[in-house]
């Protein structure tokens, strides 16, 4: 776990920096500098582009990692990398042609509930392409076990740019319409910078030799398109459907709550970047003991870290919402229920990496289709009755069901599962601290309240984790910094 811990630590710092900037943008700058309608529009554009991302990438960002370590000669490896660079164009070019000739129809359908969307449909397409090729170039650098720069670009760059753009809107340097155009250009610039770094790590050599396992690569990529599309679909279908079923400003209100809950997934996102190529190496080399060790260690480490963030959010949520504008304060239930789903997801460790890089990757498609159908049906049923809370509940139920299926499947096929007695102890500590701290409030300003309660909570939580040795890797890291 040495390289995992080192790069995960650096990735966690950049991810938290990105989320810190994102918090300022999402909770304050967007809410004060843009109208609810335009904030909702930005959320809709980015969410829809995210749904399109795996489709535009042609599954290349996963295929790169899965197959890279299988090629041992320069000609075969360069031919494989050349294929990976050009494969997404098989989707992007026809999609663009369809968009040119069918724009009126597509825009009319998307803008049926909110007319403001009509003029911004091309923005969705451009952002989707930029996101897709960014992931391809990020995967290119991951194959060299280089993840820190890419993670910084993924988590920090565009959020820092958004901060500057929102300030420009506030000072009337940019109009809102110009802001949205500039936001699209930020995603294009991020893609180009990632490409430059990826090629500096390994310069492409264009070779067009036929690959022996070309059919396997194409089959995998096609399945990943659907499976990955389903995964992104689930992440953003709630915001998309809210934009289609309710007034678009509701996307803005929901986006604030979802952003807060998503902070729980930061350690998972950071560790995932290095776990994907390592898991592929262990699977390709039949290193089952190493794979099992990575599975269990990643699970307990992410449960401990995710549990701490879950506690900090849930126990400070009332004070945090007191700092926001009135119309954004109705998302406590959304934060709690989505937070639970994210914590469960984190506790699965590198479960996703095992499925995507094993011979059972086809099952990800099956599970994903079931999940997508379930999410859509639940959103259709629950949004009209419960509004934003109904959408959150639909997402929670779908994600929990999906994760249980993946957990059981990996256990049956690989005879390994991520949990242990220590997992139960961590869950017990989380429950105990929620019961002890939820009603604790200091008679101070909300910001001071958050700081005091958080400091007390972090100290108690880390002492308990350290005292009962619930994570050997994290204990070693704490010892290292305590000795400084």
Automatic annotation (TrEMBL):
<feature type="transmembrane region" description="Helical">
    <location>
        <begin position="300"/>
        <end position="321"/>
    </location>
</feature>
<feature type="transmembrane region" description="Helical">
    <location>
        <begin position="12"/>
        <end position="32"/>
    </location>
</feature>
<feature type="transmembrane region" description="Helical">
    <location>
        <begin position="156"/>
        <end position="173"/>
    </location>
</feature>
<feature type="transmembrane region" description="Helical">
    <location>
        <begin position="120"/>
        <end position="140"/>
    </location>
</feature>
<feature type="transmembrane region" description="Helical">
    <location>
        <begin position="80"/>
        <end position="100"/>
    </location>
</feature>
<keyword id="KW-1133">Transmembrane helix</keyword>
<keyword id="KW-0812">Transmembrane</keyword>
<dbReference type="InterPro" id="IPR050833">
    <property type="entry name" value="Poly_Biosynth_Transport"/>
</dbReference>
<feature type="transmembrane region" description="Helical">
    <location>
        <begin position="251"/>
        <end position="268"/>
    </location>
</feature>
<feature type="transmembrane region" description="Helical">
    <location>
        <begin position="217"/>
        <end position="235"/>
    </location>
</feature>
<feature type="transmembrane region" description="Helical">
    <location>
        <begin position="446"/>
        <end position="470"/>
    </location>
</feature>
<feature type="transmembrane region" description="Helical">
    <location>
        <begin position="327"/>
        <end position="344"/>
    </location>
</feature>
<keyword id="KW-0472">Membrane</keyword>
<dbReference type="Pfam" id="PF01943">
    <property type="entry name" value="Polysacc_synt"/>
</dbReference>
<feature type="transmembrane region" description="Helical">
    <location>
        <begin position="423"/>
        <end position="440"/>
    </location>
</feature>
<protein>
    <submittedName>
        <fullName>Lipopolysaccharide biosynthesis protein</fullName>
    </submittedName>
</protein>
<dbReference type="InterPro" id="IPR002797">
    <property type="entry name" value="Polysacc_synth"/>
</dbReference>
<feature type="transmembrane region" description="Helical">
    <location>
        <begin position="38"/>
        <end position="60"/>
    </location>
</feature>
<feature type="transmembrane region" description="Helical">
    <location>
        <begin position="364"/>
        <end position="386"/>
    </location>
</feature>
<keyword id="KW-1003">Cell membrane</keyword>
<feature type="transmembrane region" description="Helical">
    <location>
        <begin position="392"/>
        <end position="411"/>
    </location>
</feature>
<feature type="transmembrane region" description="Helical">
    <location>
        <begin position="179"/>
        <end position="205"/>
    </location>
</feature>
């Amino acid at each position: 776990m040495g390289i995992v811990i080192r790069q995960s630590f650096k990735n966690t710092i950049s991810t938290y920096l990105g989320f810190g900037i994102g918090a300022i943008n999402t909770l304050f700058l967007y809410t004060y500098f843009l109208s609810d309608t335009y904030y909702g529009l930005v959320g809709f554009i980015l969410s829809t582009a995210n749904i399109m991302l795996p489709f535009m990438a042609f599954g290349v960002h996963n295929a790169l990692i899965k197959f890279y370590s299988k090629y041992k000669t320069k000609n075969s490896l360069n031919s494989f990398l050349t294929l990976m660079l050009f494969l997404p164009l098989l989707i992007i070019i026809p999609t663009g042609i369809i968009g040119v000739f069918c724009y009126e129809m597509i825009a009319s359908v998307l803008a049926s509930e909110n007319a403001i969307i009509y003029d911004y449909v091309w923005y969705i397409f451009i952002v989707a392409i930029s996101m897709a090729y960014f992931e391809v170039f990020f995967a290119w650098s991951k194959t060299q076990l280089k993840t820190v720069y890419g993670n910084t670009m993924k988590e920090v760059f565009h959020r820092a740019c958004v901060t500057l753009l929102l300030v420009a809107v506030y000072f009337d340097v940019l109009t809102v319409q110009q802001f949205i155009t500039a936001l699209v250009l930020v995603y294009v610039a991020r893609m180009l910078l990632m490409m430059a770094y990826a090629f500096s790590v390994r310069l492409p050599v264009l070779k067009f030799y036929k690959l022996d396992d070309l059919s396997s690569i194409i089959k995998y990529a096609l399945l990943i398109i659907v499976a990955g599309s389903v995964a992104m679909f689930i992440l953003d279908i709630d915001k998309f459907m809210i934009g289609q079923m309710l007034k678009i400003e509701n996307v803005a209100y929901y986006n604030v709550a979802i952003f807060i809950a998503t902070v729980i997934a930061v350690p998972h996102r950071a560790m995932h970047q290095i776990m994907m190529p390592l898991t592929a190496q262990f699977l390709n080399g039949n290193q089952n003991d190493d794979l099992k060790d990575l599975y269990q260690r990643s699970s307990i480490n992410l449960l401990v870290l995710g549990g701490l963030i879950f506690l900090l959010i849930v126990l400070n949520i009332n004070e945090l919402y007191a700092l926001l504008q009135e119309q954004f304060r109705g998302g406590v239930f959304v934060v709690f229920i989505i937070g639970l789903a994210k914590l469960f997801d984190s506790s699965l460790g590198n479960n996703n990496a095992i499925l995507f890089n094993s011979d059972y990757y086809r099952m990800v498609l099956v599970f994903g289709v079931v999940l997508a159908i379930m999410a859509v049906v639940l959103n259709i049923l629950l949004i009209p009755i419960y509004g934003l809370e109904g959408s959150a509940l639909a997402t929670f139920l779908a994600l929990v069901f999906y994760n249980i299926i993946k957990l059981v499947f990996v256990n049956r096929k690989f005879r390994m599962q991520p949990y242990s007695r220590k997992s139960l102890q961590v869950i017990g500590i989380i429950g105990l601290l929620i019961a002890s701290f939820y009603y604790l409030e200091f008679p101070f300003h909300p910001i001071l309240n958050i700081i005091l309660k958080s400091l007390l909570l972090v100290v108690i939580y880390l002492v308990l984790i350290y005292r009962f040795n619930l994570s050997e890797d994290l204990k070693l890291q704490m010892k290292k910094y305590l000795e400084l």
